[in-house]
Amino acid sequence: xxxxxxxxxxxxxxxxxxxxxxxxxxxxxxxxxxxxxxxxxxxxxxxxxxxxxxxxxxxxxxxxxxxxxxxxxxxxxxxxxxxxxxxxxxxxxxxxxxxxxxxxxxxxxxxxxxxxxxxxx
Length: 121
What we know:
- The structure is a single chain.
- By secondary structure, the protein is an all-beta fold.
- It has strands spanning 4-7, 10-12, 18-24, 33-39, 46-51, 58-60, 68-73, 78-83, 92-99, 115-119.
- The termini are far apart.
């Protein structure tokens, strides 16, 4: 069974917004850093955001700063990615994954199945 489940993707017009959710099964997300990644056909996987476990410090790729916000709701065992002012080039499958801390960029595990985000008019 997949330990992380992404949801919230869909079709949105350019400039629109979506909120993605990453829910854990079998472990508590507050003990881990959770990263959001995206991958479009023909492109390499890109890390777009991450939130650490202890202090909830965050990371954002330069391309999404000011538009995306990552947050954690420990009571729901869920990490969210609020995405505003979406661009067509951000069409991709979005994944979440866990690591010990955000700086361990090659140590992410427990990948979810992904949720499709399509930005198109």
